[in-house]
Amino acid sequence: MDYIIFIISMAALIKGADLIIKESEKIALHFGISEFVIGATLIAFGTSLPEMAASIAASLKDKSDLAVSNVIGSVALNITLVLGVVFLLAKKIEPRRDIFKQDSPWGLFPILTFLLMAYDGTISRGEGILFLALMAAYLLFLAQEPSIVAEEVDEELAKEPFNWPPTLGLLILGFVMVVYGADFAVSSASNIARSLGVSEWVIGLFLVAFGTSLPELVVSVQAAIQKKADMSIGNIIGSNVANFSMVLGSAALVNPLRVDLAANAFDILVALVASVMLVFITASRLYNRSAGIALLVILGVFVLGHTP
Length: 308
What we know:
The structure is a single chain. The protein is mainly alpha-helical. The protein has a single domain (about 35-145, about 200-305), classed as NCX, central ion-binding region (A middle domain of Talin 1, Up-down Bundle), CATH 1.20.1420.30. It has a two-stranded antiparallel ribbon. The chain is built from 13 helices and 2 strands. The chain has helices at about 1-30, 35-45, 50-60, 65-90, 100-115, 125-145, 155-160, 165-195, 200-205, 210-225, 230-255, 265-285, 290-305; strands spanning about 120-125, 255-260. Mean pLDDT is about 85; it is low at about 150-155. Helix 3 (about 50-60) packs antiparallel against helix 4 (about 65-90).
């Protein structure tokens, strides 16, 4: 039964990702918004819902370690796993946007802000509000984006009439399929792994962080395959900003979060190195398989670092 659930869940994930991409592009065309901005806002927020749910639930139960480690792990996996797979699978990655020039500060600023706020061992409610203010600043920054240029328009899609109710309905359906599809896929995969004798440690390591990163993975890979590189990379940058600002900020408002930087130094270092690597890739425009392999090597180090 778990095998059937896994197959259906993955099918729901893929179909949900297709719906999100198509309906998001319709909204982008209707309002003259670039694919990067749509990826960094609408899609990023939607695919970050699992992280938010997991961290707020952990904060309500006063489990600060789980709330924070979920964000750190998700940010590391978003860059190393998601972009690594995107660069390996996509035949051609050519973002129209100069991501390094326009967006590189947002690749590093959120994690540096986290280190600064967590230096005293606690993220207070006041600092949670500051995190949410960081999200507002990011949205204001993206709001300055000029309208899309003519060559960015999908002419076939542009011919379709725009109607809010079906577009919004299909978009919500897509997010529901992605979020719940990820949940059922991880649960069924865990049961299958247990039946095959895989250790609880391996299952536990990826159950939360990988499970909550699965929506980003599926949506970004689908976007890249459909040659929507700006949407794919925008989803990752926007998701990481949302993880540190919106997810941690909301969790800290529920309950102040205790953070042991020394005990979690390795995981935080991996997330920081991955963030620096993302900035380097955008600066050098290394959107290719070599970059994908390098990111997956960092992922390998991340996994090996948790080997008992």
